[in-house]
Structure prediction request, 919 residues.
Amino acid sequence: MTTPMLRRDGRTRTMLNRLGFGSFVLPLTLFMLLVFCLPLIGVVRTSICDGDCSLVAYVDFATGKLFHRALINTLSIGFVTGLVSVICGYFVAYHLSRMTARRRRFFLVLVMLPFWTSILVKSFAFTVILGTDGIINNALQAVTGTDIVIPMIFNRAGVIIGMAHWLIPFAVFPILSSLLSQDKALRDAAEIMGARPWDIFWKVTFPLSLPGVIAGGLMSSVIGMGSFVTPALLGGRRDMMMANLVDFYVREALDWRMASAIAVILVLIALLILSLAAWLRQRQESGAAA
Amino acid sequence: MTTNKLSLQQVSKAYGYVDALHPTDLNVAESEFVTLLGPSGSGKTTLLKIIAGMERPSGGRVFINGRDTTETPVRERDLGMVFQNYALMPHLSVFDNVAFPLKVRKTGAEEIRRKVGEALGTVQLAHLADRKPQALSGGQQQRVSIARAIVYNPSLVLMDEPLGALDKKLREQLQHEIKQLHERLGITILYVTHDQQEAMSMSDRIALMNEGRIEQLGAPRELYFSPKTAFAADFLGNSNFIEATVSEVSAAATRCRLSGGEELLAPRRDGVRQGDAVRLMVRPEHIRLIGGDGAAEDNVLTASSLGPTFFGDALEIRAQIADGSEVSVKVANNFEVAAAAPGQPLRLGWSSDHTHLFASGSGR
Amino acid sequence: MRFLTKNLSLPVIVTWLIYVFLLVPSLVVIPISFGTSNELVFPPQDWGLDLYRRALDPAEGWLAAAGRSMVLGILATTIALLMGVPAAYGLSRSRFPGQKALTFMLMSPIFAPTIVVALALYLYFATLGMTGTMAALAMSHAVVITPFILVTTLSGLKHLDRNIENAAMVMGATRLQIFFHVVLPALKGSVLTGGLFAFLLSFDEVIVSWFIARSDQPTLPVKMYSSIQWEISPVLSAISTFLVAITVVGSVVAAFISSAETDGI
Prediction:
């Protein structure tokens, strides 16, 4: 520590030393402040000040019929896909939780594969599968001998099928981890005390997995509400969500202020749901300790 | 004649080529407290799982309360069980945990309230009925678990190392409570432990298990004072083993010669012949230190002290005998330690009645 | 357990149907890609490699888009690894005030609606006059994928025995020496899988690129997006098959690395 070379920059050294391991976080923190936080603040600013400063975009949002429909679409599609994802995800997670770790590794690849498959591949595949001239409708016509066509695409059903497919893995993982963290002795105990499999599931396994269910449901809802590609490619004109409006105002209407205001509202909704999740978890933890 | 609460007939378990449990018989009478005692891997957990129905036996039959339950699903075996890690439902209150077995039996609300109240009263936890299990101490949680296992009057209560997770003081207190509960309520208990002291203090009978079979079955005193094998002698209590060769077999006793030249007397044992290599066992508390002119016992060895160790309630002196093996002696804690300083010559004496003779190479 | 599966046979059927639902879209594109007709038919009437020939035709632009996505993925993953791995180490080995808030900030690109991130970066780089540049794209992707590097690295760090680091520190190693000689070698597996997935994430990313990339120089997903939007061409099935193949290889390699890792412990 006494060599002159070290003494020269001794000051920065002491500072970094006091930060300790924290200094490892410094580069990423600076990067995220500059390329993530600053741009986000920029969105809030643009939603109010774009040339002049006013709340006109928010007022428009509160009064415009188009915006109301997008808001309702966003909330309801998010809610329904969250629900569908959690229900489907529970079946998969339960199945995964009741096998050996070795077998699970294989089945997890089956879940991961669609998780990592490009959403565009999936959207393209769904247009081929669900379309009016698609695989399902062709098969139906062949089987029934009629020219029946079930509209499953460019409408609400298409959006929900496509989004659920995308979001099921997001629901599987929290549910799986809460199922795996359950002590098997609890189920053994219930069985010895005379509980039937049905009782064991509804009175022991399911209530104990609720934190995972809630986390998975809120997670997939929040992600679903921000989705952009699926409603654009699989939905109809009436299924426009807030994310699509953002795109519309940037590219077509060239109204950055409006686009920013919609984005801010979307973030607020996500924050609201996430804090609801945090609150639920906290309540649960404090309830367990009381 | 009353039926046994539990009866095992030639129950066995094999995993592939490994025999986890050799064909085993065991009967547990009503209101009896029987302990499966043994080291890990001795087959006691396998046996318990077969009785509970969590494992299928490879052979044999299991009878609970006179009924053949070998093929009966777990939930219909009418068993109670206390687990080592309590296995209390974290999302249910203490009351609801104890009420669980009654609820799955569709018992009426009024009766549930009464029975749960009684059971919690029995374990002195009625005042904590509304708490969640996590808010209770380990000892309290295990008492809840016990209340839950007895509230529906099962034929047999299984206890799988229930005190294993508790510290020594609490363990002793709960041993006492479980024993009292057993005497007061007359429940039938099959208890599993690897702790010999716990087994001896609580059980009516102990089934000592080793390498997948019951090595010896009997009352605690019987196992302690008349161990049938060197393993039994070694596992229960402390023991000194001395290698010897049989030099003479008479009607009353067996005379054995040590490699150091000394001779020791042991009770007669069938099947032991002159020239056989044997192991003699004597418990440390049965050995006396004999002064220069003290009254002689019928077995006496000279030894050289390796030094004393103080245990509070007693003093242990380790000594080396002529053949080089070590012997430990338990004496009162007020013993003059200078007399046992390392290198001091000692004379060890004990009665031939306290000498146990085993075939060489058995046990351990 | 035995009678449980027997009683729950309906749930078991439902479970398998869900697996089918999850897998079919990734698989259905494969047979279509070997058809020849100009219309989407399943199963194809004639088989051939026409669609691949068209996908590889430089005039169609798919090759250039794929190349662009590849370069972008490598750049973004490199940036994310260089900053994310040390950051995860720092976060896991220290306690300082505001740590929770900082962690939340670093992770938040996962939770934030991607469209908002895309808009924010679009406005930001537009102000800086950088829209459409590779630098802007790489930084934008780095923002999106770094949280995943953090997650995988943090979970890898959880399995490390801290006493080994403490021992190194007692023996006089500096924090940097410990990081490079003790922690990084032990973390190889998680860093590799994290990096692999981050690359896949960037390679498939469409929303941010849709906003940032120049429309005459699209990335592969952006080109697919506009193509699906305007006319659903059968060529897309060949591109999709290519993407599915990349995903399968990535997932299998990652599963292999992580299982080798856990087996090793």
